[in-house]
Amino acid sequence: MIGLDGFTVEIADRLIAEGRMPNLARLRAESARWKVTDEPYRNANLAYEQISSGMSPDASGRFSSVEFDPATYAVKQAGADNPPFTAGLNGKTVVFDSPFFNLCKASNTEGMVGWGAHGHGMPDGLHARPASLAQEITDRFGEYAAKEYIYGFWWPDPELMRRAGVALRKGVDQRTDIMRWLIGERITDWDLAITVVSDAHSATEPMWHGVDPSHPLHGHPSAPVAKQCLEEIYDAIDRHIGAMREVAPDATIVCFSVHGMGANGSDVPAMLLLPEVMYRYETGKKLFDAPTDWKDAENGIPIVSPGVPWDRIILNAMRGGKVMRVADKIERGYLRAKHKWTHTASADAGSDEPIRFPLKMSATRYSKSWKTTRAFGYPSFHDGRIRVNLKGREAHGIVALKDYAALLDEYETMLRALYDPRTGKPVIGKITRPVMDDPLNCPGNQSDIVAEFEGLPVSLGHPVLGSIGPAPYRRTGAHTGGPGALYIHEGDVAVGDYGTCSAFDIVATVGKMLDPDFVAPSGEPFLVPLLSPKAA
């Protein structure tokens, strides 16, 4: 299994047409091919948790990576709690750096995770089985070249963009060397080998404006650098695909991406503006008010100086430009320490305790008011989420159950009135009410209203609340692209296009190919089309 995290088929199509990515071009030409959809679960923003576990949110109960505690009103980010799907296989798996892959819960799986994945979902450090493998890999291949660039606010700085791009491209080549050794020399008695390349994920989020001519930042000086860097990372991914076929020439190849990437229209409204809207709507006060120079920015898009993290820029704006308090300096130092590789852990040394991480997001700055308002903007990485402070569910609930439906109607009317001051267009698309049938049993990772954003707003307008923002873009790319892709190649596969499958069908099919008794947590196995009839 070759997982391509954050991989966009349209970019690959263009590069193949330009004569680049020959290994992917050859694999496509020799494979059975499907488009891949992860709908209706993309808003959970847990694509690789769903791949590693094989569970849809309906099966796992994970509807978001952000969890709210109704007893304390605290929020945290969830890690890799569920067992990998390989734990249910009758065979041996070797894995390298698959996100949200909890080796502790798959005793029949060897390898290493937590090396350089984008959102690995495990406590900091390298997790390996056998434990000695982590040191072996570090001694032979070094630490991940792009460990400082897995996440980043880079678009304001062309030079930082260039350094990040070079490091991420080197990271892909490191992966290739590690996998050649890992499955070709170190652990050779495997039935299933899994490699996930997540460098395109880490790169595309801050570099999308370089490959999207319609993006408002496409004219920024960092855009040409972003385009070049991202394309070179795709070149390295192509080398990785070719190397995997060389090191295991007789293996069935299952190469896939879950979905493509696109422009990011959610960071600013989800992480800042909608929580501010709810705060103003409920309290009549302001916490965030954009600085004058942001309000006067050309085209309504603030351009900020490089070198200051986005969250710090927003926090300073919330304080009217005041310097950090001592507590925030401590917090900032903690965050720097948190992202250092601090230890190596044996995969056998885990526990059954849930894995949770502190969540540092602008939306959490409103949490002091959550106990005293009817509802609030719930932190989210992808869409707008509103959580009602409901009696009988939240410890300090205000809203009676009999008033619940009417209140959601009120909020939906308010949301529909929001527009983008730059374009004059509405910013709210589809609105859902996930727990309408049973609001008292809303889990901590779910909300009462989920609102999808449209366009690329950096400010919001409302006929009563006025203008909220603008704020600078945080990331230019997000999980908003089209379908992913699946290519299955084996000796007697019937080459061709076979429509669309669910991302969960990939896991179900691979499991059934390896083990006829495998029962997938979610999804349905399909028959791989062969020249001679044979069940997958």
TrEMBL record:
It comes from the Bacteria. SUPFAM superfamilies: Alkaline phosphatase-like. PROSITE patterns: PTS_HPR_HIS. This is Nucleotide pyrophosphatase. It comes from Croceicoccus pelagius. The lineage of its organism: Bacteria, Pseudomonadati, Pseudomonadota, Alphaproteobacteria, Sphingomonadales.
